[in-house]
Design goal:
- 2 copies of one chain form a homodimer.
- In chain A, a hairpin with a 5-residue loop joins strand 4 and strand 5.
- In chain A, helix 4 crosses helix 5 and helix 8 crosses helix 9.
- The first copy, chain A, contains 9 helices and 8 strands.
- The N and C termini of chain A lie far apart (48 Å).
- By secondary structure, chain A is α+β, with helices and mostly antiparallel strands.
- Chain A has 2 domains: 142 residues, Jelly Rolls, CATH 2.60.120.10; 47 residues.
- Helices cover 50% and strands 21% of the residues of chain A.
- The radius of gyration of chain A is 18 Å and the shape is globular.
- In chain A, the strands form 2 sheets. A 4-stranded antiparallel beta sheet of chain A has the order 1-8-3-6.
- Chains A and B meet through helix 3 and helix 5 of A and helix 3 and helix 5 of B.
- Chain B binds a DNA duplex through helix 9.
Chain lengths: 191, 191
DNA sequence: CGCGACGTTGATTTGCCTCAACGATTGTGG
DNA sequence: CCACAATCGTTGAGGCAAATCAACGTCGCG
């Protein structure tokens, strides 16, 4: 798989043979638009690598509101990390924004690969470090920026998603109601 | 160092010899109460392991407000992860809440140890995974819980810190002003 | 066509912030 | 050991950003 090779190669050197070893542990899967890859109270047995399409992960709070944690366009990994590493039921939903092709890697196979192929443990160590930086950054921004500033940041970071995504989901990601995002945008055109 | 051994042992098996290899790469340091270990615009060359005392990491926004990301009591690691892995100037401050003893490990030495001692890369892979889970969880809670609920969560998670820490810092951690936290607590006694 | 999800707009409410004043506590130098 | 400043916590009045609730137009889709 071209994209997987390319994605690994950003952080480690990997041969075709080694890639084959990894691919032998992965399973193809497709998820159609609006269908679930994972629901709360399930155990996330797999991490998913997105080949084409797009997924999102989110939680649903006690009032029924969705809070989107992550979008996963092609070349990204996504899972419920808590559930994946603890092997306990999680509280995240993952579903498809568009028809999506995936490669799945179970935690068991991942850990086996870490022993067989230490490079791969290095790869995931690096990817996890970067995800942590990202998550902490977002936390800071949610604490220190206004809704308008968070929207601008979103537009800069995901310029491609803006026109694709229902506005509702952008609102959920930046942490405001859809109504308020709509009002911000209309004031935008005046100012 | 007893505590370091104990902390590693939670996630990996490590011999005394291997511990010595690690310790040879680490440097002792003490930071007195209210003194900085790191300031914004500096490069975080080191990750710090807290032996005794307590550190905190935080950012300061454009309006001069502090937002605390993490407390690090004994047995915890702390650094500006962005700066540490990218070797660029960061935007976090780290200072001591109490007089604190540390063991420092530079990124360079850490990476060297990953090659010498793959176990250690595994250890940090696991610790980083857990930190990521933690950070994501906190993000969800900031988006979905009220200030009162976040304070209750804080009390449950850090019962020891509540009486030690200035209220101002608890407020900063849960994302409200000190005044508002004070008002919540007084209403608490009535309801 | 007709239904259901989405986006818009307006009136109203509210959670939390801002600013200001005032004790209480801490710590520091004389 | 005290005087004083500095920081912290408390309380109150008022303000604002964003939520809530509700009504309505629109679009994609079965």
């Amino acid at each position: 798989m071209e994209l997987l090779l390319h994605t690994f190669s950003k952080h480690i050197n990997i041969t075709e043979q080694e890639l084959t070893v990894v691919l032998n542990r992965m399973r193809k899967k497709t998820v159609k638009k609006k269908q679930y890859l994972l629901q709360a109270d399930q155990v996330a047995k797999d991490a998913a690598f997105v080949v084409s399409g797009c997924l999102r992960s989110y939680s649903i709070d006690d009032n029924g509101f969705e809070h989107i944690l992550q979008f996963a366009p092609p070349g990204w990994w996504i899972t419920d990390m808590f559930s994946f590493i603890s092997e306990q039921p999680g509280n995240l939903f993952i579903d498809a924004i568009e028809n999506t092709e995936l490669l799945l890697l179970s935690r068991k196979d991942q850990l086996a690969l870490f022993d067989e192929l230490p490079k791969l443990e290095r790869y995931f160590r690096i990817v996890t470090e970067k995800s942590l930086v990202n998550s902490r950054q977002r936390l800071v921004e949610n604490l220190s920026l206004t809704a308008k500033e968070r929207y601008e940041r979103f537009c800069n970071i995901y310029p491609t998603l803006i026109n694709t995504l229902p506005q509702k989901q952008i609102a959920s990601f930046i942490g405001v109601t859809p109504e308020f995002l709509s009002k911000m945008k209309s004031q935008w055109l005046k100012g």
